[in-house]
Amino acid sequence: MKPLLLLLGTFFISPGTFAMNGDFWYFQTSAYTKHWKSDPDHNNRQKLISVERNRADGSLWGGATFKNSFDQRSYYAYYGHRWNAEQYPVYVKLSGGLLHGYKGKYKDRIPLNNLGVAPVIIPAVGTYYGPVGAELVVLGGAAVMVNVGYRY
Questions:
Q1: Among 36, 48, 52, 142, which residue is least crowded by beta carbons within 10 Å?
Q2: What local confidence, expressed as pLDDT, does residue 73 receive?
Q3: Of the candidates 58, 55, 61, 69, the residue with the CA atom closest to the CA atom of residue 108
Q4: Spans of the chain, pLDDT less than 70
Q5: Which CATH class name applies to 2-8+21-151?
Q6: Assign residue 9 a region: left if phi > 0, alpha if psi is -120 to 50, beta otherwise?
Q7: What is the residue-wise DSSP string for the chain?
Q8: What is the C-alpha separation between 59 and 23, in angstroms, rounded?
Q9: What is d(CA 99, CA 38) in angstroms, rounded to the nearest whole number?
């Protein structure tokens, strides 16, 4: 609940405080995860570490490592785009890439994972205050995750 309040609270701060100009690196970690369906096998502590390069034109690329829903170390390499709001410190982000790490009895929990690597598309909505940011990430039909990060 606290990350959601932080996300919503930034709508009431002066838009002039926020500039997202130029290229930057963005480092993130997961703060909260909620699976849509309760399952005793689900892990809600993803321990995500992500490094992302954002370009002034909105394009981005990056990589992440995390514990998937079944506590398996997983990796995501991606390319995407970020669309910034003109007057508010919010943005929408869409990334697509390859996901590796769903193995054994869980390999069929993500589509197209026949070779152990699956293509995925991940949407997110984010906000920022200076170099600090937060994102609400939708993980398909499985879960929603809140990430917090630092821009450099």
A1: 36
A2: 97
A3: 69
A4: 1-20
A5: mainly beta
A6: alpha
A7: -HHHHHHHHGGGS-GGG----S-EEEEEEEEEEEESS--TT-------EEEEEE-TTSEEEEEEEEE-TTS-EEEEEEEEEEEE-SSSSEEEEEEEEEEE---GGGGGGSTT-TTSEEEEEEEEEEEEETTEEEEEEEETTTEEEEEEEEE-
A8: 10
A9: 23
